[in-house]
Amino acid sequence: MKSNRNLSRAEGRRLGNVALIAFMLGSLLLLSLVRAKFSLIGKTGDAIKAEEHQAMAKDSGEMATAHEAAAAEEEEDETRSKPTDSSSGSGGIGSTAIVAGDDHAERASKPVCYESSRRSDTCEAAGDVRVVGRAQTVLVSPLDREWKVKPYCRKHDAFALSHVKEWTLRPAGSEDAPRCTVNSSATAFVLSTGGFTGNLFHDYTDVLIPAFITARRYGGDVQLLVSSYKPWWTTKYLQVLQQLSRHEVVDSDADAEVRCYPHVVVGPTFHRELGVDPSLSPSSGGVSMPEFRAMLRDAFGLERAAAAPSGDRWDIRRRPRLLIISRRTSRLLLNERAMADMATSLGFDVRTGDPEVSTDVARFARLVNSADVMVGVHGDGLTNMVFLPAGAVLVQVVPYGGLEWLARGTFREPAEGMEVHYLEYVVQKDETTLSEEYGEDDPVIRDPAAIHRQGWDALKAVYLDKQNVRPHLGRLKNTFVEALKLLPHGRQTTV
């Protein structure tokens, strides 16, 4: 009897194991069927990877100028674009749909409106596209639902976006679609000149470089529909815009036409401050910053692609030229004349330039392009580095106050992408007028980090708006000598 009982228990265990295995196999089969059914709305591996990068990136919401954005987005270069959650409402950026793109895989995975970077949202649609510019509306057939977007690359900055008009992409049936008054086979590209345009840094970082990234792939067969239109701004950069498009630039705010296209892009794509990341746009031919700079040379007729002496070495016929960027308000170089004399004694041909909003871009671009070294205090005037020839040197004078992080994001890191050498001169407390206004024990002098902790407004009010500088000529001379050494054949120059 004991043997029979043991046999019965063993058989019971075997039956239990068989049942468990059968249950597991059935569950796996069921999960496979469910996964196959819903895989089309799941996230791609690239999207999951992008979200991981997004989670690792720093998040800052206190930016109000181009300089602030540089600090907040130090990690943006590592952040890949990704579609946002498909559960968002009809006014958001989300759910997947098939749209026009550069290849089948891209079309299959890209939503109509998607987060093209932490700084930009972009919408793309193909089919029967009808643009009603004065109403900031794009009617598309077919389209699954309504979408809204502000076409400006500073999406988390409420102040900037308050000056940018919102556009709506709306499904349109044949019975309610307005009749086309202008037909085009080009791609429509909607962008905005609202926000912070008028500041040179923002002109390039927020608008011109993102527009280049977005429009270059169409080889000129793209029409720019400009929202929040500023006539003076468009006139100022018309030569650049004409490099992007062979069609008329349209003031969409005042446009009474119903313009019809086969394809529309609403909102440019941002990569990084004053730069392009070729790895983020492989389907666009891998656009690059050198390519953008070549486009600027074509636009303004600039002669020098690279810094080089007239012969085997720099000599009296072609001395290396040093350009000092002057300022008229804060952060003045109080000993600018003495700086010029010292640079001349080193063998430089010294020029000065004062870029303003009203400055003729082509004329100033030619001046910058003629320079081999450009020096200036941190500010939007240094954005003119886009015109320097490759191999030239940028010397950024960093004001007192622990602003190295700001200098790095705005001009130091972009210099590499422009193939420009970079040097930095950091102002000490005995070289700033702040020492004359505040005592040695004041936190402004003794503990700049304490001012930083008060937020951007406090930092800007003190270290950017109130400060002028007087660099030590001896220490600055060492920087200029280093610049000479970095120039092509610069080691042959007698110092």
Can you characterise this structure?
The chain has helices at residues 2-38, 45-56, 66-72, 104-109, 158-161, 200-215, 231-236, 238-244, 289-300, 336-345, 361-369, 404-417, 434-437, 443-446, 448-452, 456-464, 473-486, and strands spanning 113-117, 120-132, 137-141, 147-149, 167-171, 182-183, 187-192, 222-227, 250-251, 258-266, 321-325, 349-353, 373-377, 393-398, 421-426. Helix 10 links the parallel strand 11 and strand 12 (349-353). Helix 3 packs across helix 12 (404-417), helix 8 packs across helix 9 and helix 10 packs across helix 17 (473-486). The protein is built from 17 helices and 15 strands.
List the helices and strands and how they pair.
Layout: H1 2-38, H2 45-56, H3 66-72, H4 104-109, E1 113-117, E2 120-132, E3 137-141, E4 147-149, H5 158-161, E5 167-171, E6 182-183, E7 187-192, H6 200-215, E8 222-227, H7 231-236, H8 238-244, E9 250-251, E10 258-266, H9 289-300, E11 321-325, H10 336-345, E12 349-353, H11 361-369, E13 373-377, E14 393-398, H12 404-417, E15 421-426, H13 434-437, H14 443-446, H15 448-452, H16 456-464, H17 473-486
Parallel strand pairs: 3-5, 6-10, 7-8, 7-10, 8-9, 11-12, 11-13, 13-14, 14-15
Antiparallel strand pairs: 1-2, 2-3, 2-10, 4-5
